[in-house]
User: Fold this.
Amino acid sequence: MDRLSGSAHLMIVSDLDSTMVDHNDKENLSLLRFNALWEAYYRHDSLLVFSTGRSPTSYKRLRNGKPLLTPDITIMSVGTEITYGESMVPDTNWTQYLNQKWNRDIVIQETAKFPQLTPQSETEQRPHKVSFFVEEALEIMDVLSERLEKRGLDVKIIYSSGNRGIALDILPQGAGKGQALAYLLKNFKVDGKVPINTLVCGDSGNDAELFSVPEVYGVMVSNSQEELLQWYTQNAKNNPNIIHATERCAAGIIQAVGNFCLGPNVSPRDIRDSQKCKVDIFSPGHEVVKFYFFYERWRRAEVVTSEQYVQNLKSVFCPLGIFVHPSGVEQPFHQCIDSMTKLYGDKQGHRFRIWLDRVSSAQIGSDTWLVKFDKWELSGDELHCCVTTVLLSLKQAEVPDGFTWVHMHQTRLDGSRSRDQTVFCF
Ligand code: GLC
Ligand code: MG
Assistant:
């Protein structure tokens, strides 16, 4: 990926439904924990890859409903579509390659002869993926692939269980989540940028292939489906680089990061006491993630209010610093902190969460950093995003371990206006 000049420190390749996203966790707490960990410590030198069975349409639907980060690479439709970056530029070489021994019209003709196959919605039918729901998958898989072979095709049939029953996907033989990852790794090799570590994460049948890619670590989250666990027992039981987590979904991914010693594995969201949070990790990303977690808890009244906290905050913000509000109005930092003080607990018992995405930082002077990120704020049913820029400077010798916030500027992404223009808060 062009975003990184060298090899990624860590590449996480994760399935979404029931792996990154826990549909039983309405508050999305483990996903938010993962997000904070990623943005604080990994975003700057690592790669996040989502690998989902969903089509682009249903992937976008999921993104709109869940606090998912922006991945560097998106693999959709069970490894048949690969896109790069935020603007999701498609890899046309990959699609070309998948045309070998593939003809979706023939797949449709042959599958129509099996009444047990119920076609999935139109959005999930893709150029290199034909998908159904089935009651019992195994018995027809062999017959079907034989018939398709006779007609000159070479296909791969994958079944995966999930919330909506058993899905059966028919893909070109060269496709699939594992093959798509192998293709990415091959390209990284050509560029001399193979990630130092790769961790694959999944929960169901279509993820099995990911775990057989050579030299990757793998985590099957605790809530994995029977077919994946069975595949593991039959094929990979002796591989010490694959674990079955005891934690569900994104919490299982964090667990694997710790288990395989792939880097920091304590999410800033798990550090409750902001004093203890003065950790020895020097990271502008960590600084902003930590601040917004504190801000969320302040408004939810999850920290005990005290003058000490307010004083601490004031010591972190430069007395002459200015906050440029999305409305364009400028306000001195200390006034913002006074406003924030008054907002203590105003979101108590409400749906109120903040997460940061796309945190990037650049050192622009011997002790100054420019940090840029998207600040997402969910409040009740309203979701807003502000592109935020913060100028941080290293504190002077008397407090050597922290940053001072010097300047801050926010621009609202969606163009909507805050209902209360008088509240000046970060
Ligand atoms: C996702 C896709 C579906 C596919 C299933 C299993 O749910 O939307 O089309 O069959 O994953 O791969
Ligand atoms: Mg899944």
Observations:
- Residues 271-412 form a domain with the Nuclear Transport Factor 2; Chain: A, fold (CATH 3.10.450.50).
- DSSP finds eleven helices and 18 strands in the chain.
